């Protein structure tokens, strides 16, 4: 899932996928705007057939957080 998420991230921001780690922060390290982030969340909801809670997504700061959150919604 981490590799898939890296590919999705690169659709929204111009970064080298090899530089993305689980500790990469969406806004500070990868350059996401709030709009980009929420657009990506919408795509991930469709891709993984999940429903993201707005009040919980604010706690997703890093790529690793996103992977863990998506996995928790799939269980």
Order of helices and strands: HHHH
Tell me about the largest β-sheet.
none
Beta-strand percentage range: under 5%
Low-confidence stretches: none
DSSP strand count = 0
Protein described:
- With 75 residues, the chain is mainly alpha-helical.
- It is 56% helix and 0% strand.
- It is built from four helices and no strands.
- The chain has helices at residues 2-12, 34-48, 54-57, 63-74.
- The radius of gyration is 11 Å and the shape is globular.
- The mean pLDDT is 95.
Write a brief caption for the model:
With 75 residues, the chain is mainly alpha-helical. Helix content is 56%, strand content 0%.
Question: Mind sketching the topology for me?
Answer:
Elements lengths: L1 H11 L21 H15 L5 H4 L5 H12 L1
Helix pairs in contact: 1-2
Keywords:
mainly alpha, 56% helix, 4 helices, 75 residues, 0% strand, globular
């Amino acid at each position: 899932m981490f590799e898939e998420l890296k590919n999705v991230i690169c659709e929204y921001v111009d970064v080298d996928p090899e530089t993305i780690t689980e500790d990469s922060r969406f806004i500070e390290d990868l350059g996401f705007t709030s709009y980009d982030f929420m657009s990506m969340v919408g795509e991930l909801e469709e891709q993984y057939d999940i429903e993201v809670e707005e009040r919980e997504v604010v706690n997703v700061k890093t790529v690793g957080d996103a992977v863990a959150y998506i996995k928790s919604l799939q269980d």
